[in-house]
Amino acid sequence: MAAQDCKRFDFDPILQAHVIAGPDLLRQALRHPDLGVRPPDQPLPPALQGRRFGAIYGQWLRMREDPARNAERQALEQALTALDRRVLQAEAQHQARLALSQSWEAWQWSSLPASLAAMLGVPMSSAADQASLRQQLQALAQALRPEAGPRELDAADQACEALTQGLGRQGPAPLWRGLSLPNWDAAAQAIGLLWQSHEAGAGLLGQALLAGAGHEAELLRLAQSPGVIQHTRRWALHDCRLGDSYLPRGTALLLRLACEPAEPGAGLSFGHGRHQCPGQELALLMAQATLGVARQALAQGIAPPSWQGHHALAHARVPRLADRADRAESLVLADAKLPTERAPTPSTTAQESRP
């Protein structure tokens, strides 16, 4: 982002928001106790009121500031910490191979959400399962757009229903089983995890593949500068101060995360303070495994993707990857050399062992 676009604190009359930039002020805003992710009198987007997606969206931990949610937050963090990294890595490799057998676009968009979904017991045994998951997450994204109408909102409700019904249906589902929460709360947080892996995961994989990154330090650098998530919003929940500025209750802020300097370990795309992403380590682990599959396929002769610019998304920078014309021929050669077996897993179903 150009330097002239990174003023520290300025009011944008078009956005009707104060634009915040600069590392110190951004960190102050992200950890400020009186700045929330939703307007003070609007816990849900108006279009989601009374809808199934609205009920789930309102349960997502990043949308709620009240201390009563601390137990849920702790349960989610414990479930993520307890997840066996070797099992997750093997699942990510399997899902990446499955997606790459379809297209580079499928690899970019399906690999990470499908890996998490499998850990949550959602059936992910085929390319059709992956495509269905992607369609469901896209339905949620469409419903959150300002121009969403009844068709998009109905599709999001149906997607939430399908995702909820799929949780714990197949395999040991260690992440689903590890969520020590009532089923409704666990389902809402599980869908929240899948949602967070959707655009952010596609952006990270696309950027990393184009840049030739693969090691954790390289991935973290790409996730930070300029980062997949370009900006986020906050609202003053009460009259408060940020730096030298007074913010009346309801003041809207736009935090330009892309203005953050490229300092190792200092980026904000994974959040900061109480909004620090608890799944950062797992996201980077899955991305490494997924990129390893891509590098292996490229070494075996599969045609690399072509870059077609970026998707037109409101807050994320996601490269658009497309297959080259010669991919089909190269895929035949690569498929003959790539392993396709899946890591063995216990046969016990998650539904039998969920608390």
Automatic annotation (TrEMBL):
Residues 345-355 have a biased composition (Polar residues). InterPro entries: Cyt_P450_CS, Cyt_P450_sf. It comes from the Bacteria. GO terms for molecular function: heme binding; iron ion binding; monooxygenase activity; oxidoreductase activity, acting on paired donors, with incorporation or reduction of molecular oxygen. Residues 332-355 are annotated as: Disordered. This is Cytochrome P450. The lineage of its organism: Bacteria, Pseudomonadati, Pseudomonadota, Betaproteobacteria, Burkholderiales.
